[in-house]
Design a protein that fits this description.
Elements: E1 2-9, E2 18-20, E3 22-26, E4 29-30, E5 36-39, E6 45-46, E7 57-62, E8 65-70, E9 78-81, E10 90-96, E11 99-105, H1 108-118, E12 123-126, E13 154-158, H2 159-167, E14 182-185, E15 197-200, E16 203-212, H3 231-234, E17 239-240, E18 243-252, E19 258-261, E20 265-268
Parallel strand pairs: 13-14
Antiparallel strand pairs: 1-2, 1-14, 1-20, 3-4, 3-19, 5-6, 5-12, 7-8, 8-9, 10-11, 11-12, 13-18, 15-16, 15-20, 16-18, 17-18
Length: 275
């Protein structure tokens, strides 16, 4: 049986992630995952695609705060309450890909912190619980919501898939190039491509769409330097049309929130998803 071997959350979209031993699974994604995001002055999201240096900003969960700091200067800390209040923030429409949704805009002193570090005008925004950002109905049931992740609440990758990719390259790459929420071990490479209904611990999920990968995966998460890999190698055997696929986009189908923990069994519920 497969086992959940890693859990990651990325509280601020495109900033460094956090490895956890357990996490609360909510409808929009894991608790705190991509609930914050940086935008430009026009409200459009900013990511490592255009600003690779975002990878150099680390995050940490130190209740009651989310802590953000440069990896090279951990003493230069910004504290953000993990449970933000509406007071002191404006509500505006922000854009992420083709989606628009309401978000809370942080005040100037917060935005100056990011803007000074990254030498561009940036604004920190938060997606409140009542914001409407539905998952693409072509791939998921109606009513599914997502936070500021690219399109789906969860991303799952098999460790064997990364091991297979690394066996094809001169220099192996770490899993953080792909920014998953869940890493599982025990299956053959790319088995997750065919998973439909499955359970992690007591929470039931559904795989809805293979994840198309972009230039972000070519960014070294410790240096922000870009190269050709892994897209160069993946394009030789993981290309479907004009997309390069690696990992599985996932939604939660359990009605209620639940806890997942490293070491939980991963049970495939649909026989068609077995390999």
């Amino acid at each position: 049986m497969d086992t959940l071997t890693s859990i990651y959350v990325y509280p601020v979209k495109s900033l460094a992630g956090i490895s956890l031993q357990e996490s609360l699974v909510q409808a929009r994604g894991l608790q705190y995952d991509r609930r914050w995001m940086l935008t430009d002055d026009d409200g459009r999201f900013v990511s490592q695609r255009e600003v690779p240096e975002l990878a150099l900003l680390a995050t940490a969960i130190e209740p009651p705060n989310l802590v953000i700091f440069p990896k090279q200067d951990p003493g230069h800390r910004l504290l953000i309450p993990l449970e933000p209040e509406r007071t002191g923030k404006t509500t505006e429409t922000v854009r992420i890909w083709d989606d628009e949704c309401a978000a809370w805009i942080y005040p100037a002193e917060t935005n100056i912190w990011f803007s000074a570090l990254l030498n561009r005008s940036l604004r920190l925004v938060y997606i409140p619980d009542d914001a409407d950002r539905p998952v693409d109905p072509k791939y998921a049931p109606a009513g599914q919501q997502v936070s500021f992740a690219d399109g789906y609440p969860f991303l799952l990758i098999g460790q064997a898939s990364l091991d297979d990719l690394n066996s094809r390259m001169d220099q192996p790459l770490p899993m953080n190039r792909f920014r998953p929420n869940f890493v599982v071990s025990g299956s053959s490479p790319y088995a997750e491509d065919e998973w439909q209904d499955f359970r992690i611990g007591q929470v039931v999920f559904q795989g809805v769409k293979p994840c198309a990968r972009c230039i972000l995966t070519t960014t070294d998460q410790e240096t922000a330097q870009r190269g050709a890999e892994p897209l160069k190698t993946l394009s030789t055997y993981r290309k479907s049309g004009n997309r390069i696929l690696f990992g599985q986009n996932v939604i939660r189908t359990s009605a209620d929130d639940g806890i997942v923990r490293v070491g939980d069994p991963v049970e495939i519920l649909d026989p068609a998803g077995m390999r």
